[in-house]
Write a structure and sequence with these properties.
cytoplasm; Glutaredoxin; redox-active center; single chain; GlrX-like_pln_2; four-stranded mixed sheet
């Protein structure tokens, strides 16, 4: 799941990366007028994998570059490879 502010270009980048890996993320866009507070203090864009907070865009790309993202997606059932 990707949660972001409406029109955020980085959420589109994140979504395209996940699509290119074979995942089909659920995207929730929050109005920039809404005040959203998360328990973990996470800023938007927030990425959840298997119900767990992965983090922001930086954490997603770090997991992808290190080779940890695909195993996490498989474990969560987001990939059928």
């Amino acid at each position: 799941m990707v949660i972001s502010v409406e029109g955020c270009y980085m959420s589109r980048v994140v979504t395209q990366l996940l699509y290119s890996l074979g995942a089909n993320p659920h995207v929730v866009e929050v109005s920039s007028d809404d005040k959203v507070h998360y328990e973990h203090g996470q800023e938007l864009t927030a990425i959840f994998v298997g119900g767990r907070l992965l983090g922001g865009v930086d954490k997603l790309f770090a997991a992808h570059i290190s080779g940890n993202l695909i195993p996490q997606l498989k474990e969560a059932g987001a990939l059928w490879l």
